[in-house]
């Protein structure tokens, strides 16, 4: 691990880091859209990131969000941690309503299908994603009774 990634992982569990992260999301979306996915804030921190574009369940419009991911065979693990807030992120509700989405990863675009992971399979993929971002365990504690949604994205 590089120094920047080590610091990000160290501070990732702090409340101030989550607040800062929430504020950086719109900027990260713009950066990724302008650079066609070549640059992202997360990747500058040494973390794997993709841009997920879902269809708004009410508006029908495309909605993009930067997410940390973990490769899982030919799939991608993503979580709806919402930085540990008490409510699910909008993108996860959109993905449940319309599982077909698109990701931008290192300047390449892929159509994907999202699937909510539950039960034993969720526990297995959760253990994989917290290896990359241990703060997800802290976010799960902060979320209270809300179980953080975990999705597998499969290229179409």
From TrEMBL:
Organism domain of life: Bacteria
Pfam families for this protein: F420H2_quin_red (PF04075)
Molecular-function annotations in GO: coenzyme F420 binding; oxidoreductase activity
Coiled coil segments of this chain: none
Catalysed conversion reaction: oxidized coenzyme F420-(gamma-L-Glu)(n) + a quinol + H(+) = reduced coenzyme F420-(gamma-L-Glu)(n) + a quinone
InterPro entries recorded: F420H2_quin_Rdtase (IPR004378), Split_barrel_FMN-bd (IPR012349)
GO cellular component: plasma membrane
Protein family per UniProt: Belongs to the F420H(2)-dependent quinone reductase family.
The protein's name in its UniProt record: Deazaflavin-dependent oxidoreductase (Nitroreductase family)
Originating organism: Crossiella cryophila
């Amino acid at each position: 691990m590089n120094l920047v990634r080590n610091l990000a992982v160290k501070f990732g569990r702090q409340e101030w880091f989550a607040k800062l992260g929430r504020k950086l999301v719109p900027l990260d979306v713009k950066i990724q859209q302008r650079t066609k996915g070549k640059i992202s804030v997360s990747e500058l921190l040494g973390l794997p990131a993709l841009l997920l574009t879902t269809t708004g369940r009410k508006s029908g419009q495309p909605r993009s969000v930067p997410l940390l991911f973990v490769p899982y065979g030919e799939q991608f693990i993503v979580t709806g941690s919402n930085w540990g807030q008490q409510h699910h992120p909008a993108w996860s509700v959109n993905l449940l309503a319309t599982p077909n989405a698109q990701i931008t990863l290192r300047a390449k675009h892929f159509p994907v299908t999202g699937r909510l992971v539950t039960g034993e399979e969720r526990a297995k993929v959760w253990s994989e994603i917290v290896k990359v971002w241990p703060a997800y365990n802290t976010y799960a504690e902060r979320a209270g009774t809300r179980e953080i949604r975990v999705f597998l994205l499969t290229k179409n």
